[in-house]
Write a structure and sequence with these properties.
379 residues, 2 domains, four-stranded mixed sheet, 12 strands, flat
């Protein structure tokens, strides 16, 4: 088995035919293991200026953090926004306090992982005694497997082969990905595994790119509760990611040909290009990310434009209006039921249904009214 060669030295190689679409980045590339090429592309030059090749490479492949957007498992990602970003539309990158804190804590969380022994709090004693259980290594590159040339994986860290699993005690004889995250208490309670489903998709992509059948995610819940979760390769999830990302790449490539030179065109011609590309767009999501894209792309309408709607568009409008009418009826019925509950609880602050929950109806002078129907086991 070829050992990972992750030194950013001796870069520049002839890429295989499968990676011909990445030829412009060959100066950064080298083979790091069988079938896997790494691209050591710095985000910034030494003088601090941004390296445009870094941005262009990200547009040229589907990254591991984008997999869940394509499979519908990212509550904050939208396929249409991702589509246009790959086609060539620039979106401003917005740093939030969550991303900055997450990046700041990444190294610290990964350090705790090295002391993790498979128990909930064993890492605390191991850290105080200075006894590391395992080691991880940096992997400062984008990796592309020639069997999945449209996909790239950027790992937080990787775990070298030959170390014992703290969960089973068995020696893991292959290198595997280690992902680092911060998770809110709300998110940890919400998901069955304690982490958002999009992180699972991210790890699955990383595993099949590197040819691993196992990975781990180390994460910090609510800023203080450290956990490590083992994740096995799921063939069905991997197949879904491969298929959807391939289909997505196909329509992106078609749209790129249309979008070339878009910014130099007059408005009338831009509108025609937009119409052609819109026919290639994936389905939009129902989350806020689509509206972020929509407001950025379509700031102003094209004045005095009119066309005849299609039968499919009519059906969508009918469903939209029908759902609106249904929601109005449901809201009306919900209000009636709320009033009934307030009526039968008017003389009691709490109505108990024992293990099935309770109704709270507090109204105290000088304080905010509290009305909650906190029941469970009703589904």
């Amino acid at each position: 088995m070829m050992k990972l060669d992750l030194e950013a030295k001796n870069l520049g190689c002839k890429l295989p035919p499968e990676l011909a679409h990445l030829e412009r980045f060959s100066m950064y590339a080298k083979l790091i293991k069988e079938d896997v090429y790494a691209f050591f592309i710095p985000q910034f030059f030494e003088d601090g200026k941004p390296n445009l090749d870094w941005w262009e490479f990200r547009k040229s492949t589907i990254g591991s953090s984008e997999a869940a957007t394509l499979t519908g498992h990212d509550e904050y990602g939208d396929p249409v926004k991702l589509f246009w970003s790959k086609v060539g539309m620039d979106f401003p990158f917005v740093n939030t306090k969550f991303t900055i804190i997450g990046l700041h804590l990444e190294e610290k969380i990964s350090d705790l992982w090295e002391y993790f022994d498979g128990t909930d709090d064993g890492y605390v004693d191991n850290w105080h005694k200075g006894e590391k259980v395992r080691e991880k290594k940096d992997i400062p590159c984008y990796a592309v497997n020639i069997n999945y040339p449209h996909i790239s994986a950027s790992l937080d860290f990787y775990v070298p082969a030959g170390q014992a699993s703290p969960f089973t005690g068995e020696i893991i004889d292959f290198d595997f990905p280690l992902e680092i995250k911060t998770v809110s208490q709300f998110a940890s309670d919400k998901y069955e595994l304690g982490i958002p489903e999009k992180y699972v998709r991210q790890l699955q992509l990383q595993m099949f790119v590197f040819g691993a059948t196992y990975a781990e995610i180390a994460y910090l819940v609510a800023g203080f509760d450290f956990k490590t979760l083992p994740v096995d390769l799921d063939v069905s999830i991997c197949q879904e990611i491969i298929e959807k990302s391939y289909e997505f790449t196909e329509i992106v490539n078609q749209a790129r040909d249309l979008y070339d030179g878009y910014d130099l065109l007059p408005e009338s011609e831009q509108r025609e290009i937009d119409l052609q590309i819109s026919k290639l767009e994936p389905e939009p999501s129902g989350n806020d990310a689509y509206m972020e894209f929509y407001k950025a792309k379509y700031k102003n309408s094209y004045e005095d434009t009119l066309r005849l709607g299609t039968e499919e568009e009519w059906d969508i409008c009918v469903e939209y209006k029908t759902l609106g009418d249904t929601i109005k009826e449901l809201e009306k019925r919900k209000k009636e039921l709320q009033h009934k509950i307030k009526s039968f609880s008017a003389l009691d602050e709490t109505i108990s249904f024992e293990e099935n929950g309770r109704v709270i109806n507090k109204r105290r002078e000088g304080k905010r009214d509290i009305f909650n129907v906190n029941i469970k086991n009703y589904k």
